[in-house]
Amino acid sequence: MASINVNDTTNQNQLAASRPLPPDQISPKSVVLRIVELKYVFQRNWKLLIIIVALGAAIGFTYDLLHKTRITYTGTIMFNLGGGSSGGGFGELGQLAGAFGLSSGAPDANIFVGDNFLIYAKSRPVIEKTLMQTDTIDGKDTLLVNYYIRHSGIRDKEWEDNDSLRAFYFKRAKVPAEYTKMEQLVMSDIFTRIGTEMAVKQPERKSSFMELSSFMEDEKLAAAFLTTHLKTIEADYQKKQTKKTREMYDLLTSRADSIARKLTGTENSLAKYLDQNQQIIVAQARIQENKLNRNSGFLTTLYYQALQQADNMRLSLIRETPLFTIIKPVYFPLYREVLATAGLQIGVACSLVLAILVIFLKETYRSIMRAQ
């Protein structure tokens, strides 16, 4: 049996104990030493840390005092589009599904289809039409754009340093072609601000319901803007969707009116001719009388046909007119949210990061000087 060398065993244990750890491993001893070292670093620099953090907190607190707390009111209207019929495709259901992006196949060029409707509802022409509407607020008929200027907060923020804009108001409702240079500037600023104060979305992907929301600093303004904007979208939508049918209806109505004028003239001529030729029995006179009777009867038939066609087109116009059904109207009181500034929190966080960086640079410089 071979004997075991005690000295070899001892040497092997010593080598194993003195063997360094791999670079990717940390020993418990090194962790403890680092913690103790951080303790000494904090003891040397705690005053500097407190001073920098206190300075950042003071700056953030001052910012909070100088900036007022903002209060917003959020209103929501949920609606559904339906009631209009159109030819081709799947009829009314196909049009309704396509208006909210539920249809399949290639994208439709219609501005009311899919995501186009969401963009259209927030477009500047539609919003300007809404702002130029008159609404009854506090028992007074008020131009919505003027009420927005007074109560939205735009005068105290965007126009704070411009006295001309702060005193501006629209004297009457106008179309964009009638805007002055100042009115164009005002409407541009208002549209930019409203773009951050409203949203149009589809609550559920499988649902055809749409949701129009606004979040403004005045409760009555938020509610009035929602209801007026939905009415504007509905009127503009119906006008565009039934444009061809309305043109045909106007054409048939104009044709019926033209035939009525000719029929009236022919009947007057016939009556006048009969009054002047009651005792005449000449065949030539009878021919003229028959001619006038024939023209009168023909025009009467055409007139009745034109009236019938116009009535049919009017019924078709009613059938094709899409309807906005309000599922959930605006309910008072609106949701109130207080948006306070976070200057103190941001100041403390930034100053803490700055303090750690300063202490790190200081300790690095200290270690370099000690090594020399």
UniProtKB/TrEMBL annotation:
<feature type="transmembrane region" description="Helical">
    <location>
        <begin position="48"/>
        <end position="66"/>
    </location>
</feature>
<dbReference type="InterPro" id="IPR050445">
    <property type="entry name" value="Bact_polysacc_biosynth/exp"/>
</dbReference>
<feature type="compositionally biased region" description="Polar residues">
    <location>
        <begin position="1"/>
        <end position="16"/>
    </location>
</feature>
<protein>
    <recommendedName>
        <fullName>Lipopolysaccharide biosynthesis protein</fullName>
    </recommendedName>
</protein>
<feature type="transmembrane region" description="Helical">
    <location>
        <begin position="338"/>
        <end position="361"/>
    </location>
</feature>
<keyword id="KW-0472">Membrane</keyword>
<keyword id="KW-1133">Transmembrane helix</keyword>
<feature type="region of interest" description="Disordered">
    <location>
        <begin position="1"/>
        <end position="21"/>
    </location>
</feature>
<keyword id="KW-0812">Transmembrane</keyword>
